[in-house]
Each structure stands twice: as structure tokens, then as C-alpha cells.
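User: Assemble these into one structure.

Assistant: Restating your components, then the assembled model:
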Amino acid sequence: MRRQVMLFFSMLFVSPVFGQVSYSIPEEMSKGSLIGSIAQDLGLDLKRLKTGKSRLHVGNGAEYIELNKEKGLLLVKERIDREALCKQTTPCALHFQIILENPIEFFRITVEITDINDNAPIFKMSNMLFEISESAVRGSKFILEKALDYDVGMNGLKSYSLNPTDHFVLLLNDNAAGEKEVEMVLEKPLDREEIQHLTLTLTAVDGGEPQLSGTVQIHVTVLDANDNAPLFTQSTYKASLMENSEKGTSLMTVTAKDRDQGTNGIVTYSISSNNERIFDVFEINATNGELRLIGKIDYEISKLYQLDVKARDQGGLTHSCKILLDIIDVNDNIPIIDLMSKIHSIPEDSTFQTVVAVMNVDDADSDMNGEVKCFLSDSFTFVIENTSNGFYSIRTNSELDREVTSQYNITVTCSDEGVPSLSSSVTLTLQISDVNDNAPVFERSSYEAYIVENNTPGLSIFTVKARDADWNQNARVSYILEDSSVNGVPVSSYVSVSADSGVIHAVRSFDYEQIKDFHFRVKAQDGGSPPLSSNVSVTILIQDQNDNPPQVLYPVQTGGSLVAEMVPRSADVGYLVTKVVAVDVDSGQNAWLSYKLQKATDRALFEVGLQNGEIRTIRGVTDKDAVKQRLT
Ligand SMILES: *[C@@H]1O[C@H](CO)[C@@H](O)[C@H](O)[C@H]1NC(C)=O
Ligand SMILES: *[C@@H]1O[C@H](CO)[C@@H](O)[C@H](O)[C@H]1NC(C)=O
Ligand SMILES: *[C@@H]1O[C@H](CO)[C@@H](O)[C@H](O)[C@H]1NC(C)=O
Ligand SMILES: *[C@@H]1O[C@H](CO)[C@@H](O)[C@H](O)[C@H]1NC(C)=O
């Protein structure tokens, strides 16, 4: 159908002008297609063509056209590509001649080749590459490669379109040569951190019917610009740290992210502070943001550290964050006991709850580590109490008795509540001073002593002893003889007591036969003020001495005369002549009497009873016996 139309056109353009004929055919007609009935159009008969040895004189398109002499037709010999033949030149025509001989005749023939839309627009490159900085401003232009369409006229390149159009739009300009310049204009700025790579499709379309198109991929690589500052992941970092932590301890790592690429995204960290001391204590690894301890941390000096850390990218953009480090107390301080006042000595009669020392206790640690409890080694006699104003007082908690304990070593130990607990202690020595609260006490509840009569006056009989539990003057005992009388005579005329030594002396010589015993009391008195005393009863027993000879009471002898007794001659054996009775004023054995015949005229005649003093005959009296017998 199309071809017929074209034929119609070709007929229309036949110039019946003698010697010249023009045709117009579309390109790309198949081999053998009819171009025109040349014989008819030239008014030649077919015979003339044959005889005239008609031939085509090759012009520029000889290979495309052939002459069918038999039918007088011009036919397509080879497919004609207008674009190959004429490129962009229009009109595109083949010029040649038909030459006849006998007679020589020639005719100009022009075959115009009209364009058909047989070429799509094409791009020479399979893709276009662009590297565009993200900092490129809106309106930046990028020249794109043009498309080619070998067709001409309506079939030639008509327009372009770009897809997607998020960032770029197309700008078409006609240049001086009348060609369309195609440019890509940045409409919305790029952000590498969002999109690193864009692929766009540029489509070129022609004006043919149907329309043909060609595409090319535009690859845009977005180049980084340092448009992002580093950004810390947290504005404030917090951590806690034990005081006395080892040097080199890693505390935390801060991180700042920089969305840029390459050197623009390389972040270095540094501590920024006005306080030079911070740099002696902390160090940050510039590369990885790791914070390390390089100095000593003492909770008692600082409980909190605040650091500013700066992150900087290579392009010079910075961001900073804060680090708050809470220092945790470690129980590294012992309680310190400050004895503010103490008494060296208190009297033993001090009242209950007497304050003996006041002290202050300090522990530099905090909380439980600084909470201190104090206790005493002797919590019976003394108590420790905290007073409202934060001091501790040590008071007596029981009666004191110097005679039991004269000195106390009070050890105060204060421990904190840390784990492990630290403690310290002090010892204070308290002397208990004496009060005269003990009377002298005799060693015995009563004394009994013996003295042999006829003693020499001044003889020491024995010693009484009293002890006093008090001290020094309060314990200095004096002995005093208590007034009393013995048989109406003051006792002091019998005995005396040495005040210092308690030695009791006889003042006189005693006669057992006059006094056998007597009592008195001795008082022991100490040197206290007022003095205390006690007394003891002393009994002196006088011992007998054999100081009295027996005395014959019977028979009574008067003035050196002899005593006469009568014995009858008839007296039997055992006749009781008389009984000698004697007494002895001494006592005991000293008064035990025995009788012996000392002298006798005839010892065989009388005997005396050893015990009873009876004088008896021991044989009968004979005439031979003397009348007078003398017995002693
Ligand atoms: C900082 O950290 C990096 C990476 O962990 C390490 O290679 C470097 O030795 C550290 N620098 C210092 C001074 O510790
Ligand atoms: C004093 O001691 C009492 C108990 O003995 C205790 O409850 C109180 O907290 C202490 N006060 C001080 C200031 O230590
Ligand atoms: C108290 O301490 C002193 C000195 O250390 C010591 O001589 C004394 O015997 C101690 N007294 C008591 C009652 O422990
Ligand atoms: C002697 O001591 C007793 C108690 O032991 C006392 O009752 C008496 O009064 C004392 N005598 C004198 C003279 O002090």
C-alpha cells in the first residue's frame, strides 16, 4: 500500500520533459521494485531500447538501479539506504543517464530517494558517566551527548526526555548550527550521604510515525563534599569510676559519626578543657575515642569530673560532647581519732557518768565508707557516746574502786562501715586516784598473847598488825591503845602500843599469882582525812612460873621447934602417924606436890605417902627401937 502511494508520488514527479526524467522513491524498497517505466516516460519504444543498446551511465547510484530493457522499466537493483547514500543531505537523489546508440541519445534521470523512518535515534556511547560533587549548586549544567538519528526531516531526532527527574531536568538548546544541544540541569541538590549513585535514562525520540526512540544510561556518581560535621552518638556520656582505679583503665569510648566519605569522614578526638589538670588524669585515643585513665583519682579531692571532648573531621568540622564521670568512693581512708581532751586521773569516788575524754572522729570517705562506729575495750566500766555536736565522749559507767583497779588502759577503736572495714584505735591511760574509803583492818579478829610472869618491864609481847587497802597517807596506819582499866588500874600501866609498829610492850612485870589475864582494845587508825579506824580486842594471858615453894600447913610448926607425934608400941604395920599437908600457890605442875622422906632415924620404920603425905609405919615397933625417932 505504502509502496503504491510512493509510486503514485513517483508518477507525479515524472518530468515528461524530453531528455530528462525524475522519479522519487522511498528508500529501502526491495530488490526488483519498480522505480518507473522509463521507456514510456521517455517516449521510447521497447525496440529502440534494445537496438539502441540502451544502458545506464553510472552516476553515483549505478549499483542501486537496473534497467529492464525488455519491459522498459527502471528497477531497484540493490536496496537503497538513503542514509548510506546521502547521510544527512537532502534532498537525496541518484543522478544517472540512459545512453542509446544509433543515434546516440542520452537522457538524464534523477531518482530522488525519500526518507523513511528506518533509523531510531542512537547514542554513540552505551552509557554516560558523570562524577558530580554533592556540593554542586542548583542550576549546574552538564552537557549530555547528543543522539544521532540518520533519518532526516520529520524522521530525524525530535526531542529528548530524562527519567527520573528527581534531581535533574533537561534543557534543550538549539546551537548555532541548528542542532539541539542537550543539557542536564541540577534541579535539586545531591546528597551523597543519601544517594551515592544515580542512574538516569535519557531517551531520544524522532518525529517519525511510528515514533522510534533510543536510550542511554547516565550514571551519576555523587562525589563527597565535607558537608557533614562529625556527630557524637550522645551529647552527654556518663560513667562511673572507682577512685584509685589503675592507671591505664579504659573508661569508655565515645563515638562521633561523620557521614562524609574518605578524609571528610575521618574523625579525630581530643579532650578540650581549660583545666590543665584534666590532661594529667585523662587521655583520649584520637583515633578511636577511647578514654583512658592516666592519673590518680581521689574521691576525696573530686567527686565528679566533667570533660569536653571534641571530634574533628579532616575538613575541620567539629562537634563536641560532654563526659560526666562519677567517682565512686573506695574505703581508702581510715577513721582518724582526735583526742581533744582527756583526764589523766579521776578519784575513785567519782560520780557515775563522769566524762574522762572527749574526742572527734573523722573519716574522709563517704557514705558507709565514712560512717564510723566506736567502741571500747572495756565497755563495762566505760561507755562511749556520740554527742549531738558530732563528738564522742567517754564516760564512766560503773563505780570505780582504786583498790580493785588503779589504772585503766581504755582502748577506743573506731571502725568504718566500709567493706572491708578500716579502723584505728587509741589507748588512753586513766589513773584512779585514792580516796580514803577503807579503814585499816586487823589481820585477826582478836588477839591472844602469852607472857610469862616475872617478865622484865618493857618486854615486847607481840605485835598487832592492821592493813589498809588505801594508798599512801590513807593507808598509813597508827596503833592506839584504847583507854580501859584492869582491876581498877588504867591498862596503860600494864601495856603500851607502839604507834608505828603495833608492837605491844609490857609496862610492868606480871605476877601470875596476882593476875592471870586481862583484856584491852587496840585501835588502828589511818592517816586519811577524815581518818578511818577499827579496833581489835587483845587478851594477854600471863603464864605461871614456879616461883613459890610448897608450904607445909600441917603439922603446924612454930618458930623452928619440932613437931612431936606419939606412936604406941603396939602400933601395927601401916599405922598412920600423921599426915603432912602442904600447899603451893603456883599453878599446875608448879603446884603439884609430892612428899619424900628426907632424913629418918630408922628408914625401915616409916614411910611417907608420895602423893598424900601420910606417914605410916612399915613394920611393927619393937622394944629395941629407940624411943625417939626423928623424921625430916
Ligand atoms: C588508639 O587506638 C588505635 C586503634 O585501636 C590503636 O592502634 C592505637 O595504638 C591507639 N593509640 C594509643 C596512643 O593508644
Ligand atoms: C549516735 O549514736 C546513735 C546510737 O548510739 C545513732 O543512732 C546515731 O546515729 C549516732 N549519731 C551520730 C551523729 O553518729
Ligand atoms: C596499761 O598500759 C601500760 C603501758 O603500756 C602498761 O604498763 C600497763 O600495765 C597497762 N595497764 C593495764 C591495767 O593493763
Ligand atoms: C570498837 O569496834 C567496835 C566494832 O568493831 C565498835 O562497835 C566500837 O565502838 C569500837 N570501840 C571503840 C572504842 O572505838
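The first helix runs from residue 2 to 13.
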